[in-house]
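Complex 253.
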Amino acid sequence: MAAEGRLAGKSALVTGAGSGIGKAISVLFGREGAMVMAADINEEAASAVSAQIEDSGGEARPLRADTSNEEDVRAAIAAMVDAWGRMDILVNNAGIGGPQYSWDQVIAVNATGVFYGCLHGLEQMQKQGGGAIVNTASMAGLIGAFVPGSPGGFGYAYIAAKHGVLGLTKQFGLDGAPHNVRVNAICPGWIDTPLIAPVKEAQPMLDWAVQNTPMGRLGRPEEIAKAALFLASDDSSFMTGSYLVVDGGYTAR
Ligand SMILES: NC(=O)c1ccc[n+]([C@@H]2O[C@H](COP(=O)([O-])OP(=O)(O)OC[C@H]3O[C@@H](n4cnc5c(N)ncnc54)[C@H](O)[C@@H]3O)[C@@H](O)[C@H]2O)c1
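Predicted structure with nicotinamide-adenine-dinucleotide bound:
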Protein backbone atom coordinates (compact mmCIF):
# COMPACT_ATOMS: atom_id res chain seq x y z
CA MET A 1 0.00 0.00 0.00
CA ALA A 2 1.40 3.41 -0.93
CA ALA A 3 2.19 5.69 2.00
CA GLU A 4 -0.18 8.55 2.67
CA GLY A 5 0.61 12.00 4.01
CA ARG A 6 2.02 15.34 2.98
CA LEU A 7 5.41 13.76 2.18
CA ALA A 8 4.12 10.49 0.71
CA GLY A 9 6.69 8.82 -1.52
CA LYS A 10 9.43 11.35 -0.75
CA SER A 11 12.83 10.50 0.69
CA ALA A 12 14.30 12.74 3.38
CA LEU A 13 17.76 12.96 4.92
CA VAL A 14 17.69 14.58 8.37
CA THR A 15 20.98 15.39 10.13
CA GLY A 16 21.20 15.64 13.89
CA ALA A 17 18.22 13.28 13.83
CA GLY A 18 19.05 11.60 17.11
CA SER A 19 17.79 14.25 19.50
CA GLY A 20 15.64 17.33 20.03
CA ILE A 21 14.49 19.18 16.92
CA GLY A 22 16.00 16.68 14.44
CA LYS A 23 14.26 13.81 16.18
CA ALA A 24 10.90 15.60 16.11
CA ILE A 25 11.38 16.41 12.40
CA SER A 26 12.30 12.80 11.58
CA VAL A 27 9.31 11.38 13.44
CA LEU A 28 6.86 13.86 11.89
CA PHE A 29 8.25 13.33 8.38
CA GLY A 30 7.96 9.55 8.88
CA ARG A 31 4.35 9.96 9.98
CA GLU A 32 3.69 12.10 6.89
CA GLY A 33 4.79 9.27 4.62
CA ALA A 34 8.44 10.14 3.97
CA MET A 35 11.20 7.54 3.85
CA VAL A 36 13.61 8.94 6.43
CA MET A 37 17.38 8.57 6.72
CA ALA A 38 18.03 9.48 10.36
CA ALA A 39 21.64 10.67 10.38
CA ASP A 40 23.58 11.61 13.50
CA ILE A 41 27.14 11.57 14.80
CA ASN A 42 25.65 9.51 17.64
CA GLU A 43 24.90 6.19 15.94
CA GLU A 44 22.90 4.77 18.83
CA ALA A 45 20.60 7.81 18.91
CA ALA A 46 20.10 7.62 15.12
CA SER A 47 19.18 3.93 15.41
CA ALA A 48 16.67 4.61 18.18
CA VAL A 49 14.88 7.26 16.11
CA SER A 50 14.87 5.08 13.01
CA ALA A 51 13.41 2.22 15.05
CA GLN A 52 10.75 4.51 16.51
CA ILE A 53 9.63 5.50 12.99
CA GLU A 54 9.56 1.89 11.81
CA ASP A 55 7.67 0.77 14.94
CA SER A 56 4.93 3.27 14.08
CA GLY A 57 4.59 1.84 10.59
CA GLY A 58 6.91 4.22 8.73
CA GLU A 59 10.07 3.60 6.71
CA ALA A 60 13.45 4.70 8.04
CA ARG A 61 17.14 3.88 8.20
CA PRO A 62 19.79 5.04 10.64
CA LEU A 63 23.14 6.44 9.54
CA ARG A 64 26.23 7.58 11.41
CA ALA A 65 27.48 10.81 9.88
CA ASP A 66 29.54 13.75 11.11
CA THR A 67 28.27 16.72 9.09
CA SER A 68 31.50 18.65 9.63
CA ASN A 69 33.25 15.97 7.56
CA GLU A 70 32.69 16.51 3.83
CA GLU A 71 33.20 12.82 3.01
CA ASP A 72 30.52 11.83 5.54
CA VAL A 73 28.08 14.28 3.93
CA ARG A 74 28.80 12.90 0.45
CA ALA A 75 28.41 9.35 1.78
CA ALA A 76 25.08 10.19 3.43
CA ILE A 77 23.70 11.52 0.14
CA ALA A 78 25.06 8.45 -1.68
CA ALA A 79 23.30 6.28 0.90
CA MET A 80 20.02 8.08 0.09
CA VAL A 81 20.45 7.37 -3.61
CA ASP A 82 21.33 3.72 -2.86
CA ALA A 83 18.31 3.28 -0.62
CA TRP A 84 15.61 5.19 -2.48
CA GLY A 85 17.08 6.34 -5.81
CA ARG A 86 16.93 10.04 -4.94
CA MET A 87 16.92 12.62 -2.14
CA ASP A 88 13.78 14.77 -2.28
CA ILE A 89 14.36 16.51 1.06
CA LEU A 90 17.48 17.41 3.02
CA VAL A 91 17.27 18.91 6.50
CA ASN A 92 20.64 20.35 7.57
CA ASN A 93 19.81 20.40 11.25
CA ALA A 94 22.86 19.08 13.16
CA GLY A 95 24.24 21.73 15.47
CA ILE A 96 26.15 22.28 18.70
CA GLY A 97 26.37 25.15 21.15
CA GLY A 98 27.62 26.10 24.57
CA PRO A 99 30.80 27.29 26.25
CA GLN A 100 32.31 23.80 26.16
CA TYR A 101 32.90 24.15 22.40
CA SER A 102 35.64 26.20 20.71
CA TRP A 103 35.09 28.73 17.92
CA ASP A 104 36.45 26.19 15.38
CA GLN A 105 34.20 23.38 16.58
CA VAL A 106 31.02 25.47 16.41
CA ILE A 107 31.88 26.91 12.99
CA ALA A 108 32.77 23.42 11.70
CA VAL A 109 29.38 21.92 12.57
CA ASN A 110 26.98 24.87 12.49
CA ALA A 111 28.31 26.65 9.40
CA THR A 112 30.69 24.43 7.41
CA GLY A 113 28.46 21.37 7.90
CA VAL A 114 25.47 23.26 6.52
CA PHE A 115 27.62 24.44 3.59
CA TYR A 116 28.60 20.83 2.73
CA GLY A 117 24.96 19.79 2.94
CA CYS A 118 23.73 22.60 0.70
CA LEU A 119 26.58 22.16 -1.80
CA HIS A 120 26.30 18.40 -2.30
CA GLY A 121 22.55 18.35 -1.67
CA LEU A 122 21.96 20.88 -4.45
CA GLU A 123 24.25 18.85 -6.74
CA GLN A 124 22.15 15.72 -6.22
CA MET A 125 18.81 17.51 -6.41
CA GLN A 126 19.81 19.33 -9.58
CA LYS A 127 20.74 15.98 -11.13
CA GLN A 128 17.36 14.44 -10.24
CA GLY A 129 15.30 17.48 -11.27
CA GLY A 130 14.35 19.10 -7.97
CA GLY A 131 14.10 18.96 -4.20
CA ALA A 132 13.80 20.94 -0.99
CA ILE A 133 16.54 21.83 1.48
CA VAL A 134 15.69 23.06 4.97
CA ASN A 135 18.43 24.52 7.18
CA THR A 136 18.01 24.85 10.93
CA ALA A 137 19.33 28.34 11.64
CA SER A 138 18.21 30.14 14.81
CA MET A 139 16.94 33.45 16.09
CA ALA A 140 20.68 33.79 16.77
CA GLY A 141 20.97 34.15 12.99
CA LEU A 142 18.93 37.36 13.17
CA ILE A 143 20.06 39.09 16.34
CA GLY A 144 22.77 39.15 18.96
CA ALA A 145 21.79 38.42 22.54
CA PHE A 146 22.18 40.85 25.39
CA VAL A 147 22.76 38.59 28.37
CA PRO A 148 23.53 40.78 31.39
CA GLY A 149 27.00 40.02 32.74
CA SER A 150 27.77 37.61 29.92
CA PRO A 151 29.55 39.16 26.93
CA GLY A 152 29.12 37.09 23.79
CA GLY A 153 25.45 36.34 24.41
CA PHE A 154 24.60 32.99 22.84
CA GLY A 155 28.31 32.64 21.97
CA TYR A 156 30.29 34.52 19.31
CA ALA A 157 30.76 31.46 17.10
CA TYR A 158 27.11 30.43 17.46
CA ILE A 159 25.88 33.88 16.44
CA ALA A 160 28.35 34.06 13.53
CA ALA A 161 27.53 30.56 12.31
CA LYS A 162 23.75 31.04 12.45
CA HIS A 163 23.95 34.37 10.62
CA GLY A 164 26.07 32.45 8.12
CA VAL A 165 23.38 29.79 7.73
CA LEU A 166 20.92 32.47 6.61
CA GLY A 167 23.51 33.76 4.11
CA LEU A 168 24.00 30.25 2.74
CA THR A 169 20.23 29.79 2.58
CA LYS A 170 19.87 32.90 0.43
CA GLN A 171 22.78 32.07 -1.90
CA PHE A 172 21.87 28.41 -2.37
CA GLY A 173 18.23 29.48 -2.76
CA LEU A 174 19.30 31.61 -5.72
CA ASP A 175 21.55 28.87 -7.12
CA GLY A 176 18.79 26.27 -6.84
CA ALA A 177 15.91 28.39 -8.17
CA PRO A 178 16.44 27.66 -11.88
CA HIS A 179 16.69 23.94 -11.06
CA ASN A 180 13.50 23.47 -9.06
CA VAL A 181 15.48 23.18 -5.83
CA ARG A 182 14.14 25.28 -2.97
CA VAL A 183 16.35 26.21 0.00
CA ASN A 184 14.85 27.73 3.15
CA ALA A 185 15.67 28.01 6.83
CA ILE A 186 13.96 27.96 10.19
CA CYS A 187 14.88 30.34 12.99
CA PRO A 188 13.77 28.73 16.25
CA GLY A 189 13.73 30.63 19.52
CA TRP A 190 14.34 28.89 22.85
CA ILE A 191 13.32 25.26 22.32
CA ASP A 192 13.22 22.65 25.06
CA THR A 193 15.90 20.16 23.90
CA PRO A 194 19.08 18.69 25.43
CA LEU A 195 21.03 21.53 23.73
CA ILE A 196 19.74 24.00 26.28
CA ALA A 197 20.26 21.72 29.29
CA PRO A 198 22.83 24.14 30.80
CA VAL A 199 20.25 26.96 30.59
CA LYS A 200 17.58 24.82 32.22
CA GLU A 201 19.95 23.86 35.01
CA ALA A 202 20.67 27.51 35.91
CA GLN A 203 17.33 28.87 37.16
CA PRO A 204 18.19 32.55 36.61
CA MET A 205 19.17 31.81 32.98
CA LEU A 206 15.98 29.84 32.40
CA ASP A 207 13.89 32.65 33.94
CA TRP A 208 15.70 35.13 31.70
CA ALA A 209 15.02 33.06 28.56
CA VAL A 210 11.34 32.60 29.39
CA GLN A 211 10.80 36.21 30.46
CA ASN A 212 12.31 37.45 27.20
CA THR A 213 10.01 35.20 25.19
CA PRO A 214 6.70 37.10 24.90
CA MET A 215 4.71 33.85 24.85
CA GLY A 216 6.21 33.12 28.28
CA ARG A 217 7.45 29.60 27.70
CA LEU A 218 10.01 27.50 25.86
CA GLY A 219 9.02 26.11 22.48
CA ARG A 220 8.62 22.38 21.87
CA PRO A 221 10.66 20.52 19.22
CA GLU A 222 7.37 19.42 17.62
CA GLU A 223 6.50 23.09 16.98
CA ILE A 224 9.68 23.46 14.93
CA ALA A 225 9.04 20.17 13.12
CA LYS A 226 5.73 21.56 11.82
CA ALA A 227 7.54 24.52 10.27
CA ALA A 228 10.09 22.12 8.73
CA LEU A 229 7.23 20.09 7.28
CA PHE A 230 5.82 23.20 5.61
CA LEU A 231 9.21 24.11 4.12
CA ALA A 232 9.95 20.54 2.97
CA SER A 233 6.53 19.98 1.41
CA ASP A 234 4.94 21.35 -1.74
CA ASP A 235 2.85 23.65 0.49
CA SER A 236 5.78 26.12 0.33
CA SER A 237 6.21 25.73 -3.44
CA PHE A 238 6.85 29.47 -4.12
CA MET A 239 9.22 30.00 -1.20
CA THR A 240 13.00 29.91 -1.52
CA GLY A 241 16.08 31.67 -0.15
CA SER A 242 13.98 32.64 2.83
CA TYR A 243 13.24 31.70 6.43
CA LEU A 244 10.51 31.17 9.00
CA VAL A 245 10.90 32.57 12.49
CA VAL A 246 9.37 30.32 15.17
CA ASP A 247 10.38 31.97 18.42
CA GLY A 248 7.32 32.78 20.54
CA GLY A 249 7.79 36.45 19.68
CA TYR A 250 11.38 36.75 20.91
CA THR A 251 12.72 38.72 17.93
CA ALA A 252 9.57 40.83 17.54
CA ARG A 253 10.32 42.89 20.64
N1 LIG B 1 17.19 24.17 21.23
C1 LIG B 1 17.17 25.43 20.89
O1 LIG B 1 16.79 26.31 21.69
C2 LIG B 1 17.57 25.85 19.50
C3 LIG B 1 17.25 27.14 19.08
C4 LIG B 1 17.60 27.56 17.80
C5 LIG B 1 18.27 26.69 16.96
N2 LIG B 1 18.58 25.45 17.38
C6 LIG B 1 19.30 24.59 16.43
O2 LIG B 1 18.54 23.42 16.21
C7 LIG B 1 19.42 22.36 15.79
C8 LIG B 1 19.12 21.13 16.61
O3 LIG B 1 19.39 21.43 17.98
P1 LIG B 1 18.66 20.73 19.19
O4 LIG B 1 18.23 21.81 20.10
O5 LIG B 1 17.69 19.73 18.71
O6 LIG B 1 19.94 20.03 19.87
P2 LIG B 1 20.20 18.55 20.41
O7 LIG B 1 21.50 18.64 21.11
O8 LIG B 1 19.01 18.02 21.11
O9 LIG B 1 20.37 17.69 19.05
C9 LIG B 1 21.44 17.90 18.18
C10 LIG B 1 21.80 16.58 17.52
O10 LIG B 1 22.83 16.83 16.56
C11 LIG B 1 23.80 15.80 16.68
N3 LIG B 1 25.08 16.30 16.20
C12 LIG B 1 25.94 17.15 16.82
N4 LIG B 1 27.02 17.35 16.06
C13 LIG B 1 26.86 16.62 14.94
C14 LIG B 1 27.64 16.42 13.78
N5 LIG B 1 28.85 16.99 13.63
N6 LIG B 1 27.16 15.61 12.81
C15 LIG B 1 25.96 15.01 12.95
N7 LIG B 1 25.18 15.15 14.03
C16 LIG B 1 25.62 15.95 15.02
C17 LIG B 1 23.82 15.43 18.15
O11 LIG B 1 24.37 14.15 18.36
C18 LIG B 1 22.34 15.53 18.50
O12 LIG B 1 21.69 14.29 18.29
C19 LIG B 1 20.84 22.91 15.95
O13 LIG B 1 21.30 23.36 14.69
C20 LIG B 1 20.65 24.08 16.89
O14 LIG B 1 21.65 25.05 16.75
C21 LIG B 1 18.24 25.00 18.62
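Residues 11-243 form a domain with the Rossmann fold fold (CATH 3.40.50.720).
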